[in-house]
Design brief:
The complex is a heterodimer of chains A (307) and B (266).
Chain A lengths: L1 H12 L5 E5 L8 H6 L4 E3 L4 H13 L3 E7 H6 L2 H11 L4 E5 L17 H5 L6 E3 L4 H10 L7 E5 L19 E3 L5 E5 L4 H13 L4 E5 L2 E3 L3 H8 L4 E9 L4 H11 L5 E7 L10 H7 L4 H15 L1
Parallel strand pairs in A: 1-2, 1-3, 3-4, 4-6, 5-6, 8-9, 8-11, 11-12
Antiparallel strand pairs in A: 5-10, 7-9
Chain B lengths: L5 H16 L4 H18 L12 E4 L5 H10 L5 H4 L29 H15 L6 E6 L6 H12 L5 E7 L2 E2 L2 E2 H4 L5 H7 L3 E6 L3 H11 L7 E6 L22 H12 L3
Parallel strand pairs in B: 1-2, 2-3, 3-7, 6-7
Antiparallel strand pairs in B: 4-5
Helix pairs in contact in B: 1-2, 1-3, 1-10, 2-3, 2-9, 5-6
Classes of the chains: A alpha/beta (307), B alpha/beta (266).
C-alpha cells in the first residue's frame, strides 16, 4: 500500500500544486517516485515527528496540502498532541500517513507496532480516518479525499497486494461487501481482510456462509451500512490488526448501543500486551488468534455455543 | 495616542481585565508588553488581520495572551465590549489565544508548539515567494521543550531567514527561577550554535527591538533570534521578579497600587 500511495500521490501532484511530501527520515525505497519527480516539494524534516506535524500545520494554514510520512507509532503517537492542537483544532488539510498496520513490522518489535492508532485518533472530531484493505483501495482513497479541507489519517500496510473482490472500490462513509452469506457477518478493516477472506472460505467448507463488510472509512463511520447489516444478523465478528479497544470492534459496539440493535458483537484483535517472543507478522497474528484458521475456528466456536 | 504610550496603555488594560476576570498570568503578560508593542506598532506590516500577505505573529507563550488582546484593542481589531468578555462565558478571549479570534493565526497554550507552527508558516511564505515574515514570541522557560530545538534545527537547516524568534528572557517560570528549575543558560550561545543569527536586546526598549530586527534584515541565510532581556511583571514594582505573580490574581488593594504604578508612566 505504501508503494500504491506514493504512486497515487505523485500522479495527483501533477495537477495539484498544493501537495507537499514531508518525511521524518523514513521511506527508503518508497518515497523516491515523488521525491525525484518533485524535489522542491519534498522535505525530509529529519528524525523529528513533532516538528513535522507543527511545520505541516504552518504550511497547511498558508494553503498547502502536506502529506507527512512515517511508521505508524511515530506518525501518530509521538506527535499526538501536535495532531490534536495543530491540524485537528485548526481544521487544516494535513494528511498523516502511518505505515504498518498492527504487527506488520514483526521482527522490529513492539516499538514499531501500530496497535492503538485508530483508537487514539478516533477520539478526534473532524479527523477522517482511512484504513485501506489493498493497493487499489489505497489509490482510490487518496484520490477521493484529495479535496477534503480537514485533516486525514491513512493507516497503510507496508506490503503490496490486491484483493480482487474489492475492485479498488472506496467511498467515504461506506463499507465494501464481499460475499452475501447469511450465516455469519464478519467486519474487517485493512490488510487482515486477506486472512478474513481465507477464514470465510474455511467456514464455507464447513457449511457456514459469510458476508464480509470491509470498513476502510473508519471516520466518517459507515453508519447506515453497518446498521443495515447488523440488523440482519444475530452475531457479528469484528477482525482487526489492532487492540480490541478503540478500533472497529469498539466502533461497531458503539453503533449497536447507539441504535439499540439486537446483535451480539464478538471482537477479534489483539487483546493482551505483546510481551512474548517475537516473530514475523504472520507468526504474531497466529500467536494472537488471528490466522485464517484461528479466525475461522473462533467464529465457528462462538456460533456453535450460541445455537 | 503617541506610540510611546502604547506599552503603558497595554499594561493598564492587562491590569483592568485581569482584575475584572480575577485571573493570574499577570506577570507573564507584563513581561512581554514592550515586545508586542514594538512588533505591532513599529515592526510588522499588517494592513488588516485578514490580509494574506501580512506579517504573521505567533504567541508561542500563549499564557501572555492578555497582552495580545490589549494590543488588538488598541489597534481597533476588537471593541471594548469584546475586550471586556475576557475570561467570561461565551468569549473568544480565553487565557490562551484561540484561532477563532480574528488576528490569531495559530491557537497556542501548549508550550513549544507555536515555534513549530511559525517555522512552517515561514517556510510556506518562502515557497510562495511572499515577502511576509513570521515573528514568534517564546519564553525562556519554553526552551525547556525539546520541540523548540527541533524547530530551531529545521529553520536553520532550511535557511528560513524570514523567521524571527523573540525570546522573553525574564528568568522565571511557573514554580521558580529558570536557573533553579531547569537552567536554559547560555541561551544566546545555544541559538548561535543551532545556526541562528542572534541579537541581544533590552526587551523593554521598543526602539532597540525595532533596530535589532532592522539589522537582521540583511541576513538572508539564517533565521533570527532576539534574546530579549525582560523583567517579569515589568511596570508594577511589587510584581517584578516575584514567582507568585505567575498565577496569582490581585486583591483590590494590590490592583489599586498596580494601576498607580502603571499610570505614572502614561
Amino acid at each position: 500500500m505504501r508503494i500504491a500511495f506514493i504512486n497515487a500521490l505523485a500522479e495527483l501532484a501533477k495537477h495539484d500544486s498544493r501537495i507537499l511530501l514531508l518525511t521524518s527520515d523514513l521511506g527508503y525505497m518508497v518515497i523516491e517516485p515523488f521525491a525525484e519527480q518533485y524535489p522542491d516539494r519534498f522535505i525530509n524534516v529529519g528524525v523529528a515527528e513533532q516538528n513535522m506535524v507543527g511545520v505541516a500545520t504552518g504550511l497547511a494554514d498558508a494553503g498547502f496540502v502536506p502529506f507527512i510520512y512515517s511508521i505508524t507509532p511515530f506518525a501518530v503517537l509521538r506527535p499526538f498532541e501536535f495532531i490534536r492542537n495543530g491540524p485537528v483544532y485548526h481544521q487544516l488539510p494535513v494528511r498523516i500517513i502511518g505505515v504498518g498496520q498492527g504487527v506488520e513490522y514483526g521482527f522490529n518489535g513492539n516499538s514499531h507496532f501500530g496497535l492503538e492508532d485508530v483508537g487514539v485518533l478516533r477520539t478526534q472530531p473532524g479527523l477522517t480516518i482511512i484504513a485501506p484493505a489493498d493497493d487499489a483501495q489505497t489509490k482510490t482513497a487518496i484520490e477521493k479525499t484529495s479535496n477534503l479541507t480537514g485533516p486525514v489519517y491513512f493507516r497503510l500496510s507496508k506490503d503490496s497486494f490486491e484483493i480482487p473482490e474489492l475492485s479498488g472500490n472506496f467511498e467515504l462513509g461506506q463499507t465494501q461487501q464481499i460475499g452475501n452469506g447469511m450465516d455469519v457477518l464478519i467486519l474487517s478493516t485493512g490488510a487482515i481482510t486477506r486472512e478474513v477472506i481465507q477464514a470465510a472460505q474455511l467456514l464455507s467448507d464447513q457449511g457456514l456462509r459469510s458476508t464480509i463488510l470491509v470498513i476502510a472509512s473508519i471516520a466518517p463511520a459507515p453508519v447506515s451500512d453497518l446498521i443495515k447489516a447488523l440488523s440482519t444478523f444475530k452475531c457479528a465478528f469484528t477482525v482487526e490488526s489492532h487492540y480490541i479497544t478503540g478500533g472497529i470492534g469498539s466502533l461497531v459496539a458503539e453503533i449497536v448501543a447507539d441504535h439499540c440493535l439486537n446483535v451480539r458483537v464478538v471482537r477479534l484483535g489483539f487483546d493482551v500486551l505483546l510481551n512474548n517472543p517475537l516473530g514475523s507478522s504472520a507468526y504474531l497474528q497466529a500467536a494472537n488468534g488471528l490466522s485464517p484458521e484461528k479466525i475461522a475456528s473462533r467464529i465457528q466456536k462462538v456460533l456453535e455455543e450460541s445455537n | 495616542m503617541t506610540q510611546q504610550l502604547f506599552p503603558s496603555q497595554i499594561r493598564k488594560i492587562i491590569l483592568e481585565q485581569a482584575k475584572r476576570a480575577n485571573v493570574g498570568h499577570i506577570g507573564s503578560a507584563l513581561s512581554v508588553v514592550d515586545i508586542i508593542a514594538a512588533l505591532y506598532f513599529e515592526v510588522m506590516k499588517i494592513s488588516s488581520p485578514t490580509d494574506p500577505d501580512r506579517d504573521r505573529f505567533v504567541l508561542s507563550k500563549g499564557h501572555a495572551a492578555l497582552a495580545l488582546y490589549a494590543t488588538f484593542f488598541l489597534k481597533n481589531w476588537i471593541t471594548s465590549e469584546m475586550l471586556a468578555t475576557y475570561c467570561s462565558n461565551d468569549t473568544l478571549l480565553p487565557v490562551h489565544p484561540e484561532r477563532l479570534l480574528k488576528g490569531v493565526d495559530f491557537g497556542t497554550g501548549s508550550l513549544g508548539m507555536g515555534i513549530s507552527y511559525a517555522t512552517g508558516a515561514a517556510l510556506a511564505a518562502k515557497l510562495q515567494n511572499s515577502q511576509r515574515r513570521v515573528f514568534v514570541l517564546v519564553s525562556d522557560a519554553e526552551c525547556n521543550e525539546g520541540i523548540v530545538w527541533e524547530a530551531a534545527m529545521f529553520a536553520a537547516h532550511h535557511k528560513i531567514s524570514n523567521l524571527y524568534v523573540i525570546i522573553d528572557l525574564n528568568g522565571q517560570q511557573a514554580l521558580g527561577y529558570t536557573q533553579d528549575v531547569l537552567n536554559t543558560a547560555p541561551l544566546a550561545e545555544k541559538w548561535e550554535a543551532f545556526g541562528w543569527q542572534v541579537k541581544n536586546v533590552d526587551g523593554h526598549s521598543p526602539e532597540e527591538i525595532k533596530s535589532a530586527i532592522q539589522a537582521c534584515e540583511q541576513e538572508f541565510t539564517r533565521p533570527h533570534a532576539l534574546i530579549a532581556r525582560t523583567t517579569f511583571g515589568k511596570g508594577v514594582s511589587f510584581m517584578e521578579n516575584k514567582i507568585k505573580w505567575h498565577y496569582w490574581p490581585m486583591s483590590m488593594e494590590e490592583y489599586m497600587l498596580a494601576l498607580e504604578n502603571v499610570e505614572r508612566f502614561s
